[in-house]
Fold this protein.
Amino acid sequence: VRGGYLNKLADLLYEHRDILASIESLDNGKAIQLARGDVDLVIRYIRSCAGWADKVTGSVVETGRDHFTYVRREPLGVCGQIIPWNFPLLMWSWKIGPALATGNTLVLKTAESTPLSALYASKLVKEAGFPAGVYNVVSGFGKITGEAIATHQKIKKVAFTGSTATGRHIMKAAAESNLKKVTLELGGKSPNIIFDDADVKKTVQNLVLGIFYNSGEVCCAGSRIYVQEGIYDEIIREFKAAAETLKVGNPFDEEVFQGAQTSQQQLDKILGYVDIGKKEGATLVTGGERLGETGYFVKPTIFADVKEDMRIVKEEIFGPVVTVSKFSTKEEAIKLANDSEYGLAAGIHTTNVNTAHDVAAQVRAGTVWVNTYNDFHPMVPFGGYGQSGIGREMGVEALENYTQYKAVRMGITI
Ligand code: ADP
């Protein structure tokens, strides 16, 4: 039955895909072509969850003739879900999909600056026929509504996507209230590593995708680029050219790749980091300023000649600003890549399969993209190492966060 409702919801989301993408662009500022991509993944993910609904099974454990032992997988109960403003509808789907597929009920809070797409989609949830009370959505501020979820005595789990600072606070609130289970998807400062033997054209496309996709407002953005010395000058030249020809502007322009930042606050924060980078002595290769007088547009920005202890290398900027450093050996690249409190994603660009697997095994990140970037699939788990989070979303792994195991052991008289 749950699978049927989720499938119906996927059908309705598909029917309403154009308006959902438009709402997302309007509310968040992201380019319409990217918003369509978000909606497409939302539909595929809800469809994937529909398929899981009757496949989350328990097991029988063989413990001898005098016992019959089995393990049930049960839902947790009411799940609280708190989502951010950078991918409002996608995060909505990553939260509600696995919770509903595994038989939980939920209360989801939208982000205060971008509530519209999830509210629109909530009408579709109702139309899909889920029983009343199963799915609940609230809008409100983090400190009031989010806090009420994190501290609630009857909510059994909280799933949160957002900043590391707020995630830490939520975990504390969960611990101090009722020890509700916690999953967190937090910040990042992901390395994107390029070896001498990489395909330059493809790599540059992936660098662009890595940092300018969604105007850089992506937790797994490839914001620290490391280039091997033999290819460094060529990559800087080609990447600069690509950044300068990238179309930035009106999110509803079909040609635009990088739309607006979401808010004035975000714009100010990004430009603040650009100033910090200049003061720290990094070389500004391109960008570094607002585009136009109105709207929250930022020119794609590349800093080179950075030092690893600079704030622009250490801290999450959450905008179209990237740093580029040089390395000589593979070992050095791995060391630099892992020098972060975060561990959400990493990129590797090489045509050598040995290098690819070796580096993939050694970088500390929940997702490693090789010769691709920001590349998602409903069956591939996503989440962080270190201070990038706890738990995984999508894939079969997401279902783990929404069930608990009950062992039933029955004595048998022989
Ligand atoms: P950012 O700092 O990037 O704006 P946040 O991590 O603060 O992102 O916000 C992500 C989500 O967390 C939003 O839905 C926001 O309302 C919520 N939130 C913010 N503060 C709290 C809090 N103290 N308790 C619970 N939720 C919060």
Q: What stands out?
A: The mean pLDDT is 98. Residues 283 and 304 are 5 Å apart (CA to CA). The pocket of adenosine-5'-diphosphate is lined by residues 82-84, 109, 111-112, 141-143, 146-147, 150, 162-163, 166, 169-170 (CB under 6 Å).
